[in-house]
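Q: Okay, next protein. This is Type I restriction-modification system from Vibrio ishigakensis. I've checked the sequence twice, so it should be correct. Can you predict the 3D structure?
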Amino acid sequence: MAHQEFKNFAQRSLKPFDAWVKQAQLKEIKQGDSPKELIFDISEQLLNGYANSDLLSKYDIYQILMNYWADTMQDDVYVLMQDDWKAGNTIRELVAKKGEKLKETPDLVIDKKKYKAELIPSSLIIARYFADEQAHVDDLQAKLDEAIKLSIA
């Protein structure tokens, strides 16, 4: 996208999205709100924002939102509307029934105990609060990978 025409197109394409983000007021979600009303309102706002867009189909943009809603956002919104924003600091220990494997992938593993974050992905927590430690772990992993590669060769 080095050509100026593509850069201009990208900027024009993002303007309705940026306006939608401000209008959607997702930070205003509160306990007791209706998830169905929320997705209806924000999807209509998105459709309206892209109604006059060049080369972008408002329905393609809408479908991206609806896919994200179904895959990820819906569960998060239900948690927020049930437990409010305090749900963001909740993690729960994953325990498999005897003889069975875990049904969920853990977000965190601490001393063989596995945990799932209710709302905030562990990658965001690590990036925000443990960036230096993660960089050190990544460096050690790279050295280990290199040592294994050399020992195989």
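A: Here is a summary of the prediction. DSSP finds five helices and three strands in the chain. Helices lie at 4-24, 35-49, 58-83, 122-129, 131-152.
Q: Noted. On to the next one.
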